[in-house]
Amino acid sequence: xxxxxxxxxxNAARTGSVTRKTAETSIEIAVNxxxxxxxxxxxxxxxxxxxxxxxxxxxxIDVTMRVSGDLHVDQHHTTEDSAIALxxxxxxxxxxxxGIGRYGSAYSPMDETLSRVALDISGRPFVVWxxxxxxxxxxxxxxxxxxxxxxxxxxxxxxxLHIELLYGANNxxxxxxxxxxxxxxxxxxxxRDARKGGAIPSTKGQLGG
Length: 209
What we know:
- About 30% of the residues lie in helices and about 30% in strands.
- By secondary structure, it is α+β, with helices and mostly antiparallel strands.
- The strands form three sheets. The protein has a four-stranded mixed sheet with strand order 1-2-4-3, with helices on one face. Strands 5-6-10-7 form a four-stranded mixed sheet, covered by helices on one side.
């Protein structure tokens, strides 16, 4: 079997948006994969806002995220639904994934903490999580929801995602290191490679399934 030449990369903007309304949350999200890391984030959970802002800033993916959720119940629905919608917007922006790097990885140091994140925009969601926290909350955000956030994003964005805390003590540093590593890995994976042209980065001719 031969690998035939493909059309050149399209210059079309890679943007995606999602509006998601349920009895528990109301969400509007827009992303631009070819942005500058500009963000406007409001989830009602301060530390979650901070982490999504870090993701945007260090991935160079523009993110607008407005969430109104049932925080009088708890933070679960807001965390989960916003992550689901973000993953859907990223998937929308990626389209058929033509020309992307597909794989990305990053070591992310923050003071005494070091994390490692590796991912594949494979279309086959899978998460390996080897990290943890010694506090129940960061700000007002329940730390048990952090792993769940990554599972929810990976599910709808179609990511094979491996996250490992190599070492660290400060819970804030651990969380921020992981999010920044995820951002840097995504930046590499979504970048388009002119050498690939418009080729789908798989010998199957498609990603997923």
